[in-house]
């Protein structure tokens, strides 16, 4: 273990914003794994391995045994929600996990009750919160969230915050986001450019705790938040969990580019019936999600470098609210590609996925890796943790730097970052030494 990294001693507190389908699936899942009732499938931090040295060395420990990650036994949860139900009631309402499974951990889930949330229906039109904070201004609300964090800090050694709430309406940066001073003044003035997710992120970063954003909202991808993150040594990363359809795009598009196959069109449609689907039925919230989904292909395929193959792609994304499907989302893709001499071909993908089942292990990994980054002197004051791009539809990068969306480049970046902070050699996959 690198002597510079602080050990993961004591409890790691996880503060979850929005305790709906993803949050309850995460929390119930962690407890089920701790009780030996299930395996943490889908979690790279828990089940993934990492090669060290040469292939002939045969050293590939589990990531959780290699890096000083917090143990699941030391993770404790709290959070906020706009509805007052405890985690057991919320999980039953979400209908992701079956009742028999929930009953095995019912007392634990019932013990977690959400705090009142910061909420304004202007930013999420389709929800009507009843369990919400009242305040004289957005500054007052931010102070209330900071008080919640400070109270929770007394019960654990370290804290991480993660947004698993709904998609807010589409917002663009304004001058109030240019620096911390302007943002704090705008909080006092109740500026409409400050959405609830920004209030949570500001409170977290002011308290020096890492923040992850599971939705496509404009939250920490702002100059003022990057500045604050660096100042307080509270790591931040990208936004919008990469779960279903976009996950498939970041697998397939690199394959087309690797083989220099052309792409003329990619039509994507989704049906889902959970609260996320209901929120995205609002055009303003859908625009936020659409922006997050549409950028992926352009960054991976680089049409300016390969105009003959990718300059005129027709890329369409649709999301349709369909209540009977619940959390079991269906992502359908029609992909029109072309090959040698321009001959056309088609690929059809029908991914019948479970949205929260895919998202929960990503949320767990982010919490554990952000906590590691906070304890790593080389990472904590960088602000943006680009090595965590693996988990997001919209990776965050240094200003002016294009993001890597290719899933396999992202995975190499993540593992090499772990090797780097642990003092191990980076792996380039050159392999010439085997043939000397």
Topology:
Elements: E1 12-17, H1 21-34, H2 44-47, H3 63-66, E2 75-81, H4 87-94, H5 99-103, H6 106-110, E3 115-116, H7 138-153, E4 158-163, H8 180-188, H9 196-206, E5 211-213, H10 223-232, E6 236-241, H11 245-258, E7 262-272, H12 275-280, H13 283-301, H14 307-310, E8 314-321, E9 330-338, E10 344-352, H15 355-375, H16 377-380, E11 392-394, H17 407-421
Parallel strand pairs: 1-2, 1-4, 2-3, 4-5, 5-6, 7-8
Antiparallel strand pairs: 6-11, 7-9, 9-10
Task: Describe the protein's architecture and organization.
It is a single chain. The chain has two domains: 12-241 and 356-421, NAD(P)-binding Rossmann-like Domain (Rossmann fold, 3-Layer(aba) Sandwich), CATH 3.40.50.720; 245-352, Dihydrodipicolinate Reductase, domain 2, CATH 3.30.360. 39% of the residues lie in helices and 16% in strands. The chain is built from 17 helices and eleven strands. The protein has helices at residues 21-34, 44-47, 63-66, 87-94, 99-103, 106-110, 138-153, 180-188, 196-206, 223-232, 245-258, 275-280, 283-301, 307-310, 355-375, 377-380, 407-421, and strands at 12-17, 75-81, 115-116, 158-163, 211-213, 236-241, 262-272, 314-321, 330-338, 344-352, 392-394. The protein has a seven-stranded mixed sheet, with helices on both faces. Strands 8-7-9-10 form a four-stranded mixed sheet. Helix 1 (21-34) crosses helix 4 (87-94) and helix 1 (21-34) packs across helix 15 (355-375). It is globular and about 65 Å long. It starts with 11 loop residues before the first strand and ends in a 15-residue tail after the last helix. The mean pLDDT is 95.
């Amino acid at each position: 273990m690198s002597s510079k990294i602080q050990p993961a001693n004591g409890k790691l507190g996880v503060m979850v914003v929005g305790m709906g389908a993803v949050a309850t699936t995460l929390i119930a899942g962690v407890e089920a794994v701790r009780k030996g009732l299930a395996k943490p499938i889908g979690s790279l931090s828990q089940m993934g391995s990492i090669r060290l040295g040469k292939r002939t060395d045969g050293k590939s420990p589990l990531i959780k045994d290699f890096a000083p990650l917090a143990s699941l036994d030391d993770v404790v949860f709290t959070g906020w929600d706009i509805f007052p139900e405890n985690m057991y009631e919320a999980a039953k309402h979400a209908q992701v996990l079956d009742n028999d499974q929930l009953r095995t951990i019912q007392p634990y889930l019932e013990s977690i009750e959400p705090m009142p949330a910061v909420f304004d229906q202007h930013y999420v039109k389709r929800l009507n919160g009843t369990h919400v904070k009242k305040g004289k201004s957005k500054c007052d609300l931010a102070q209330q969230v900071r008080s919640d964090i400070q109270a929770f800090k007394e019960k654990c050694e370290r804290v991480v915050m993660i947004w698993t709430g709904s998609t807010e309406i589409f917002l663009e940066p304004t001058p109030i986001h240019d620096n911390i001073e302007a943002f704090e003044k705008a909080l006092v003035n109740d500026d409409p450019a400050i959405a609830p997710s920004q209030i949570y992120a500001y409170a977290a970063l002011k308290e020096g705790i890492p923040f992850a954003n599971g939705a496509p909202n404009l939250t920490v991808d702002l100059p003022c938040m990057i500045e604050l993150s660096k100042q307080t040594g509270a790591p931040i990363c990208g936004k919008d969990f990469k779960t279903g359809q976009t996950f498939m795009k970041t697998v397939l598009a690199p394959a087309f580019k690797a083989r220099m196959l052309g792409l003329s069109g990619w039509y994507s449609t989704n049906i889902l019936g959970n609260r996320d689907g209901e929120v995205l039925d609002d055009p303003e919230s859908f625009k936020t999600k659409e922006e997050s989904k549409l950028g992926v292909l352009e960054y991976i395929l680089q049409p300016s470098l390969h105009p003959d193959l990718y300059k005129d792609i027709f890329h369409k994304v649709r999301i349709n609210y369909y209540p009977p499907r619940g959390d079991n989302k269906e992502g359908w893709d029609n992909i029109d590609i072309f090959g040698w001499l321009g001959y056309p071909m088609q690929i059809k993908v029908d991914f019948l996925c479970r949205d929260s089942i895919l998202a929960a292990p990503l949320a767990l990994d982010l919490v554990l890796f952000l906590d590691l980054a906070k304890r790593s002197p080389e990472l904590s004051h960088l602000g943006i943790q680009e090595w965590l791009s693996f988990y997001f539809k919209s990776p965050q990068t240094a200003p002016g730097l294009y993001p890597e969306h290719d899933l396999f480049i992202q995975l190499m970046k993540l593992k090499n970052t772990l090797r780097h902070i642990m003092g191990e050699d980076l792996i380039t996959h050159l392999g010439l030494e085997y043939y000397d």
